[in-house]
Amino acid sequence: GAGVSQTPSNKVTEKGKYVELRCDPISGHTALYWYRQSLGQGPEFLIYFQGTGAADDSGLPNDRFFAVRPEGSVSTLKIQRTERGDSAVYLCASSKTALDGYTFGSGTRLTVV
Amino acid sequence: GENVEQHPSTLSVQEGDSAVIKCTYSDSASNYFPWYKQELGKGPQLIIDIRSNVGEKKDQRIAVTLNKTAKHFSLHITETQPEDSAVYFCAATTLNGANNLFFGTGTRLTVIP
Questions:
Q1: Max CA distance (Å), chain B
Q2: What digits encode the pLDDT tens for the residues B17-30?
Q3: d(CA B20, CA B61)
Q4: Chain B neighbours among A 31-70 (CB < 8 Å)?
């Protein structure tokens, strides 16, 4: 597609529930990144995929967070047993190769109540 | 890991004046420094970037300078317009290394008509 697409744009969930956030990168982009942005802060790195594999998952805060990219295109960020502190905007970005700058999507605003 | 500091946190300028935002970084291995503009409810949009093999880059009203020795880089916007009003983030990374961007805390720029 023309840009990075993220769905849903907004998600409200109850504490303890499971959520999935989807990212459709720009077609042909091999690198995909997930970031989390809290109000008034810069984005913070979560995980980076090169193709289908997670090249760096050092930013995932704990084992409740998991992400997949099974076919090297669409990626899903999965959060188990959500907590109120997980509330944030989750941003996805992609780049053509690991040497290129990246393009962000508009994000998914997650609210845990 | 990398630490990026950004100043000022807020900046107000009259339309037509220039705006300058400054960032410092800590990791001498960082070689890629993008700047993002973020409008309310949207993801960060890449506006200009610079790699460590050059000291300055310009694109119309926007320019970025990099001082590798001092580990700082700056964004310069000339002839500011009301539509330049947004939050601006600097970032740093080592492309083809860690690849994850480390962001500054953002500068809210307001251009007063």
A1: 43
A2: 999 999 999 999 99
A3: 12
A4: 31, 33, 35, 40-45, 48, 55-56, 58-59
